[in-house]
Amino acid sequence: MENTTMRLDKFLKVSRLIKRRTLAKEVADQGRIEINGVQAKASSNVKTGDELTIRFGQKVVKVKVENLRESTKKEDAAGMYTMISETRVNE
């Protein structure tokens, strides 16, 4: 059964946008992730259709959540989201 929502840190790990859940939690807790333009916490819920903006150092990645799965194989992980944009930021 498909979930309707999933914790942000878990989505990031399962989709492999961020490799480890602890790291996903850190990034979220540092205020570097937004869901639909609103700053998110690790415990925030994501649902299909949400847009995530994630700041990794010099890079800002924007993705759209396509589906939520409890677990996924490496080759299927990219199907959980669509890359909208990836921009470099000079800080």
Automatic annotation (TrEMBL):
The RNA-binding S4 domain, residue ranges: 6-69
Gene Ontology BP annotations: rescue of stalled ribosome
Any Pfam family hit: S4
Keyword tRNA-binding: yes
InterPro entries referenced in this protein's UniProt entry, alphabetically: RqcP, S4_RNA-bd, S4_RNA-bd_sf
Subunit structure: Associates with stalled 50S ribosomal subunits. Binds to RqcH, 23S rRNA and the P-site tRNA. Does not require RqcH for association with 50S subunits.
Role noted for this protein: Key component of the ribosome quality control system (RQC), a ribosome-associated complex that mediates the extraction of incompletely synthesized nascent chains from stalled ribosomes and their subsequent degradation. RqcH recruits Ala-charged tRNA, and with RqcP directs the elongation of stalled nascent chains on 50S ribosomal subunits, leading to non-templated C-terminal alanine extensions (Ala tail). The Ala tail promotes nascent chain degradation. RqcP is associated with the translocation-like movement of the peptidyl-tRNA from the A-site into the P-site.
Homology family: Belongs to the RqcP family.
Descriptive protein name: RQC P-site tRNA stabilizing factor
